[in-house]
Design goal:
With 187 residues, this protein is an alpha+beta fold. It is built from 7 helices and 6 strands; from the N terminus they run H-E-E-H-H-H-E-E-H-H-H-E-E. It folds into 2 domains: 106 residues, Heat Shock Protein 90 (2-Layer Sandwich), CATH 3.30.565; 66 residues, Arc Repressor Mutant, subunit A, CATH 1.10.10. Helix 1 runs antiparallel to helix 3 and helix 6 crosses helix 7. The protein starts with a helix and ends in a 9-residue tail after the last strand. The C terminus is likely disordered.
Length: 187
């Protein structure tokens, strides 16, 4: 999820007036670097990014990505990227302005145990759908029975990663949604 957010941010926020300056993705043994042409817009700092402040450089690209569901809301990508790294046991992303480029560096080696296992990560990745998912839909995605899926969902709800909407445990219309950025637990 962090890689997807980093690539989307690079495409949406690149300064396309710098002809011949591509978006670069470089994979090293210990990190992934994604660079896009252009510095942060005037008045915006790296610390502002960490707090959800954003200035959209390319409104048309931003609107298209939003309509495609690649952007949920303005200014939330860096926070989502940071949360995904923490959940995976990785260091927080590093943001730098180098020359006339902006670089995001994502560590690839774990500093600590992940907060979530692979199955929990899969559950969270399918909950990005706006209408949520039912227990059965989630169970089908992770190749488990609904009986085996319910405790995992309850645990994710209890830990604050997921919210459920329904009248009770037996509600056939109960749906699960990814918690919003403000609701996500911090590592």
């Amino acid at each position: 999820m962090a890689i997807r957010e980093a690539v989307v941010n690079a495409v949406v926020h690149a300064d396309y007036s710098q002809r011949g300056a591509p978006i670069r993705v470089a994979l090293f043994d210990d990190r992934l670097e994604i660079e896009n042409p252009g510095l942060l817009p005037f008045g915006l700092t790296i610390d502002d990014l960490r707090h959800g402040v954003s200035k959209l450089r390319n409104r048309v690209i931003g609107r298209v990505f939003h309509d495609l569901g690649l952007i949920e809301q303005w200014g939330s990508g860096i926070q989502r990227m940071t949360a995904a790294c923490r959940d995976a046991g990785l260091a927080d992303p590093v943001f730098e302005e180098i020359g006339t480029r902006f670089r995001m560096t994502l560590a690839t080696s774990r500093q600590r145990e992940p907060l979530l296992d692979d199955i929990d990560q899969t559950i969270l990745s399918v909950l990005t759908h706006e209408s949520g998912r039912s227990t059965q839909e989630i169970a089908n995605t992770i190749n488990r029975s609904t009986r085996a899926t319910r405790p995992r969902l309850a645990h994710l709800v209890e830990r604050g990663f997921v919210r459920e909407v329904g009248t009770g445990p037996q509600d056939p219309k109960r749906r699960y949604f990814l918690a919003t950025i403000g609701e996500l637990p911090r590592g």
